[in-house]
Description:
Elements: H1 3-9, H2 12-44, H3 71-82, E1 86-87, H4 88-97, H5 107-117, E2 122-126, E3 129-132, H6 140-144
Antiparallel strand pairs: 1-3, 2-3
Helix pairs in contact: 3-4, 4-5
Amino acid sequence: MDRRTILKDMSASDLRQELITRLRGEIAHHEEQLENLREQIRQLMPGEAKTVNGFKRPGRSRTLVRNDQPLRDVIVHVLKEAGEPLRVRDIIERVKNSGYQSKAANFAGIVNVSLSNNEELFEKLSRGVYQVREGAEVPAAAEEL
């Protein structure tokens, strides 16, 4: 019997069900192939740390840098140590020199946000110039740095 004749005799729901069955079979076959490839990779890379779907993602590590002190406390320490108001770029330089680490692409933006969001600690004297606010309750951790 001709294939076209068979298809003409089938209802739309039967055709749909046949298609779904075939696609599920293909998916199962591809998943099997994928697992076989993963096993081959595992054998080639023994001892490698495994993460998402069993393998590391290529490229940079996405882990955050852990610092001993929050950025806010480090900025307070830097400003108190300077004993005078500083420009944001000087604050950034001194924060980095203090050992604070960040993988942020826009670290200057993060410092600016920290300065502007902590008005109880930092006083803006002019555009881009800050000092520790007089009478501000400085976190004890910032004193110890």
